[in-house]
Design a protein that fits this description.
heterodimer; A: alpha+beta; 10 strands
Chain lengths: 258, 38
């Protein structure tokens, strides 16, 4: 009786190929936060289903990158957040099928969570750590930053889509740093001053999303820095429904997606 | 008559002779870490 094939190793080329398909699927179907990069293939199991057909179960350890999920930047160019920047880890279980050598994802279930603040402060006592996105100071900073940007822009009026990350430093100096996603509306900034209620996100075929970073220094002196980058209209990939934004959403430290 | 041998002794005798410089293959999983371990 022919010996069964040796179990796949997690670093085998075939496992890496399956992980790449899985990661592309996960990032392509995520609607919030940031793109994730592969950190480790935790486990892989291949179950034969007949000639040239297998079911593959993958366990992946991912790490959050600095690229927002809506950014057109290719994943290969996205920097992984370092441990000291307060990394966010993703654990994903992915079920794929392999037919005639081609992998395709059947299902995925992921959970992401920020690394523990204690671990960061042990290694880097002065590193600011992530704070809740519903924190009052965070919400005030994002609101002030977006109002400041809209009051100065010559482009369209921007609406907040979601807050991605926030940190508050209390020493030295009291500083609130935030990152948030925005969408262009059908108003100019001038029109919005007259009646902001009519300003709606652009329809799917004209959508224009972007990303902002804002830093508010509260002490020793008041200062607000805002920087927004708009991506321009991206043609959505055919098999991925365009992101539907249910308004402002806040990512909690732990998030499940499937 | 059966005599019970010490496990270490038995293991010593039963050990499969390995060629000199034999390095066991790395466990198949988990795989290598690409960035850092949290």
């Amino acid at each position: 009786v022919p010996a069964p094939p040796a179990p796949l190793g997690c670093d085998d080329p075939e496992s890496e190929a399956a992980a790449e398909i899985a990661l592309s699927y996960i990032n392509g179907h995520s609607h919030h936060g940031y793109k994730f990069a592969l950190n480790r293939i935790e486990d892989i199991r291949m179950v034969p289903q007949g000639p040239n057909k297998d079911i593959v179960f993958l366990e992946l350890d991912l790490l959050e990158t600095k690229c927002p999920i809506l950014s057109p930047t290719p994943l290969a160019n996205c920097t992984v957040r370092t441990f000291a920047e307060h990394a966010v880890e993703g654990d994903c279980d992915v079920k794929l099928q392999k037919v005639d050598g081609t992998f395709s994802v059947l299902a995925s279930k992921c959970h992401s969570h920020a690394d523990s603040s204690e671990d960061i402060l042990k290694v880097c006592p002065d590193c600011p750590v992530l704070t809740s996105l519903n924190n009052t100071e965070v919400l005030e900073t994002v609101s002030a930053a977006l109002n400041d940007y809209n009051s100065k822009t010559t482009g369209s009026y921007l609406r907040l889509l979601e807050i991605g990350r926030a940190k508050i430093q209390y020493h030295p100096g009291h500083i609130v740093a935030t990152e948030f996603a925005v969408g262009a509306t059908n108003c100019s900034a001038e029109e919005a001053k007259a009646n902001v209620g009519v300003c709606q996100l652009l329809p799917e075929d004209q959508s224009n999303f972007g990303f902002c970073t804002a830093v508010m220094v509260k002490s020793p002196s008041q200062d607000l820095q805002v920087d927004c980058q708009m991506y321009g209209h991206q043609v959505p990939a055919p098999d991925i429904p365009l992101l539907s934004w249910p308004g402002v959403t806040y990512i909690h430290p732990g998030q499940d997606t499937s | 008559s059966l005599t019970k041998r010490a496990v270490a002794e038995a293991a010593q005798h039963d050990k499969v002779p390995r060629p000199v410089g034999f390095v066991p293959p790395p466990p198949p999983c988990p795989g290598r870490i690409r960035h850092f371990d949290i």
